[in-house]
Structures are given as C-alpha cells and as structure tokens.
From TrEMBL:
Record-annotated PAC domain positions: 213-268
Species of the source: Paractinoplanes rhizophilus
Protein name in UniProt: PP2C family protein-serine/threonine phosphatase
Keywords: Hydrolase
Record has Hydrolase as a keyword: yes
Length: 531
C-alpha cells in the first residue's frame, strides 16, 4: 500500500467512460474546485455518432462559477452549457474545445463579448472532460493580472496507477509540476521517495494509513525539485474491489507553493509582531506601573487607570506621572506618544522619567514642558515624525491651588458644584514640533468637592463619532459619578468611564482634594473594571 500511494501522489489518471468509475473521479475534481478561486468548471462532452462534440455538461464547478441565468456553483452541475451560454457554439469555440479534447493541448478562446463584459476562456483536457477557466476583463481593456489568472489550471496535474496491469500515466501538467521530461516517463517509487522532504514522513505515513482504511486522501507535502522546495497538494482516491482493496488509484496534484509560502510569511510576520507586543508589554509594565488602589498625598487623593488598546494592537505610548515633590506640592501629568509598539513605549519611558528628573530643578509646569519639548525635538532627529502631547499640573496643598500647562493635549475636566466642564487651555504646541516653543500656565482654585480629570485622547476619540461628542459623553459621565457618590467620587468615576476608542490606549488620572478622613477605595477599583 505504501508503494501504491507513494506513486499515486505523482501518477494519477481519471477513469474512462465507465459511469461507476467516473463518479469518484468527479468527486475528486469537485474537492479541488471547492478551494479554487475564480470561475472555473469541469465539463464533460456529449458527442454525436461521428465523435463531434455537440454539447458540454457541467460536472463540477467552483463556488464562484456562475452563468447568466443566475445559477452558481453546485447548481450548475448537470446543466448543458449550450443552453446557459448559447454564444459558446458560435465563433469556432466548440471546435477549439474539440481540439483540446482530441489532442490534449490546452488552448485559449477570446477575448469575446458576453453581455456587458469581455471574457477569455482557457481550456485544458482533464481525463475525459474539459477544465475551463473564465477570466473577465476590465472594461478599459485586458487586465494583465486577470489574463495571468487564466494560467491557474496549469498548477493542476492528474494521473492514474492501474494496480492490476501496473500501468502508470501522467498528464502533461503533472510532468510540468515535477519539472520532468515526459520522455523519461513517470517517477519510480525510489525517485519519488528521493524528492520527499524527510520531515514530512509522519504526514505521509498518516495519509497512507487513512488511504488503507478506504478513505479519500487530501494531503499537502513538500518535495525538492530543481534545488527548491515545492508544496504539492494531492487529492487521491481509488476504485476498490468488493473486499475494499484498491484496483486503480487516481487523483489530482496541485502545486500550492505560492499559497503555502505566503501563509508562512504571514505567520512569520505575526510571530514577530507577537514578540514585539510581548517585549513592549513587559517594558511598559516596568516603566509604567499602575497602582492597585488610590494614591494618598498631602491634601490630595489620586486614582489611576490604564486601558491598553484591543488585543490585536500593540501597546502604546500613553503615560502618567503622580509624584510628591520636596516642597510638599504634588506633580500630576498625563501624556501620549504617537504610535504603538516598542518605539512608542521607549519614548514614553524617556519622557516620563525626564519629567520626574526635571521636577527636581523646577516645579513650574510651563518650564517643565519647555524642557520636555527640547528633549522630544532631540529624539525626533533620531526618529523622524515623532510627536507627543502632554498636560502637566502642580497642586499646592497650602494654597489649595493648581497651576497647569498643556502641549497640544485635550483639556482637563473640572467638576465643581455638580457641573463638569473642560478647562480653557493655555497656549502650547505639541511636543517635538517647534524647537524653541514656550508654554503658558493657568491657575485655578482646587478645593474640597472638586474633581479634576486628566486623560489621553483614547477616552474621547471614536471612529464613528467626533471629538466633541466624545468629550460631551465623558462630561456627562463625570456628572453622574459625582452625583452618585459626592463624598467619594473617584471609584464611581473610574467604574463608569468607558474606553471610546478600542484602537488606542487610554490613560486616566482622577484627583480630588481631601481632608485626610477618606476611605480606602482599593476594593472599589478592583471590583469595577473601567472599560
């Protein structure tokens, strides 16, 4: 049996006109056409007493095959081509099909007009029938890509091994697939085994075992031909005796090298993206740890939440900073580096740590952004098109005041007395755009009952809505959270906010003044996810 199948992989011919033997052969053809793109069909010939072709009958079809009467795919089987495509009998096309059937030499017919389009038909003899491939051309003239598609059937070869007589037959295209001179005849078992890739031996053994159990085999294996590897898909079946022993093995061999190579290249790209995703994720967790619960500062409580983009995207460059300074004030910031992946996460780390280091020399938000801009401009020279936004705020617990500045960033939201509104932004361009940019500051009182929300644009952006709609939605959510829990609104706020843009990361920082008599909100944050 091993010898039978090994040679069947490369030596198959469809049975002759016996209907009992033709039926399984057509099933094999249909299995191949089921996964063949475009309009392609296998048609058997009706002949008169002189042997002249009088009609073609659909015996198998691709899912995309269709005719002007609205039939598609399997609905065509058993239909007469002369009734569905009456023009096929004119212009000498029957004569071309007759020649292909009689000589075995493939031919093309067209381009010809049919309805509102032009077509070319490529005809190949396959067993006792014709494998036809239709290509529709663009109205402006033949499309090279589509004309090239008419050669698709050349990737199919067929043959037969008669186990009783020992005869082996290969079709013309099977010789082409194996790049073998037809004068040498079909491959012997030893020659076939020598071409097989050793790593595929378990797959071949499993296919042989299935074939021995009277199952039809559909397997893709590799062979080395002409110094390169080809992927060959073989669909094989057999005519068997009453005891189930094969008497004639036949099938189709399809060269699927391009398809398999494309799949492997795609898998490699996905693997590399996955590796980058994991690396960036680890980097982000190291440089941007998110506390499990709220952070207590003198006179201030801060809650944080970070939402990465959807699973199919890489981590981004959103970041936050919440740090107590030596003079007793608190530095708050959020920022966003454009892009995703390791480059964005790396730049995010540089800006975040630079801000913390610069805060040792000054606590003025405008001066801090000026220095961050200079750093970003330097980084942009190494990484063109780098840009970032940020908002930096300093809370003074003694004055109960916030001083803040922004660099092209969405405005913070302030909730006061049951009403939430965006703050009017002081001037300031994005980071990394203008070398000598300066950043103005604004001041506002920040007292018990107020809530300040800093966020990145993923919270308000959405492909289906505008920024104004997103900002209005978040504003309503803040109002609802404060009304629901006026004494301890941070947990309510983070529980109610929803990520508006699954394609972008979101970083949220919520802060409120406290007197030192507030509850620990950690269990609220852990129990109510944001998004």
């Amino acid at each position: 049996m091993a010898q039978a199948y090994a040679e069947a992989v490369s030596s198959l011919r469809p049975p002759a006109a016996d209907p009992d033997r033709a039926e399984p052969w057509l099933a094999v053809v249909q299995r191949v056409l089921d996964v063949t793109p475009g309009m392609c069909g296998y048609l058997t010939a009706e002949r008169d007493t002189t042997g002249r072709v009088t009609d073609l009958i659909w015996a198998a079809a691709t899912p995309e095959a269709s005719t002007p009467d609205g039939l598609r795919g399997s609905q065509l089987v058993g239909r007469r081509a002369s009734r569905q495509l009456p023009a096929a009998g004119r212009g000498g096309r029957w004569e071309v099909y007759q020649s292909v059937l009689d000589t075995g030499c493939p031919a093309a017919v067209g381009p010809f007009r049919h309805g509102d389009a032009a077509y070319t038909v490529r005809a190949h003899r396959l067993g006792q029938g014709l494998l036809l491939n239709w290509t529709r051309h663009d109205p402006g003239g033949p499309s090279a890509a589509r004309v090239a598609g008419t050669e698709r059937p050349a990737t199919l070869g067929w043959g037969e091994w008669d186990l009783i007589t020992g005869d082996i037959f290969w079709s013309e295209h099977l010789y082409r697939i194996y790049e073998r001179d037809p004068r040498l005849g079909p491959l012997s078992r030893d020659e076939s085994d020598a071409l097989a890739v050793p790593e595929d031996a378990p797959l071949i053994r499993a296919a042989l075992e299935a074939f021995d159990r009277a199952a039809q085999v559909d397997v893709t294996t590799r062979v080395r031909i002409g110094g390169r590897v080809k992927f060959l898909r073989t669909v094989a079946d057999a005519v068997r005796d009453a005891a189930g022993r094969p008497q004639r093995i036949y099938g189709i061999v399809q060269d699927v090298t391009d398809r398999e190579n494309d799949a492997r290249r795609l898998a490699e790209v996905e693997r590399r993206l996955a590796d980058e995703h994991e690396l960036a994720g680890r980097l982000q967790r190291i440089i941007l740890p998110i506390p499990e619960g709220p952070i207590e500062f003198p006179g201030l409580k801060v809650a944080l939440r970070y939402l990465p983009a959807g699973r199919e995207s890489l981590v981004g460059g959103d970041w936050y900073q919440a740090t107590g300074l030596r003079d007793g004030s608190v530095l708050l910031a959020v920022g966003d580096v454009a892009g995703h992946g390791t480059p964005a996460a790396t730049t995010m780390a540089q800006l975040r740590h630079a801000l913390r280091a610069l805060a040792v020399t000054t606590s003025d938000p405008g001066l801090l952004l000026t220095q961050l801009n200079k750093l970003t401009c330097e980084l942009e020279r190494e990484n063109p098109e780098l840009s970032a936004t940020a908002v930096v705020a300093r809370f003074d617990p003694h004055r109960q005041e916030i001083v803040w500045a922004q660099a092209g960033h969405p405005p913070p939201l302030l909730s006061r007395a049951g009403r939430t509104a965006p703050l009017e932004r002081p001037p300031g361009p994005m980071l990394g755009v203008v070398d000598d940019a300066t950043y103005a500051t604004s001041r506002l009182p920040f007292r018990i009952g107020d809530v300040l929300l800093l966020y990145t644009d993923g919270l308000i952006e959405n492909r289906r809505r505008g920024l104004d709609d997103g900002l209005a939605r978040v504003t309503r959510t803040v109002d609802e959270a404060v009304r629901a829990s006026p004494q301890q609104p941070l947990a309510q706020l983070l529980a109610r906010l929803r990520r508006a843009n699954p394609d972008d990361d979101t970083c949220v920082l919520a802060a409120r003044p406290v007197t030192g008599e507030t509850r620990d909100l950690r269990h609220h944050l852990l129990r109510t996810p944001l998004g």
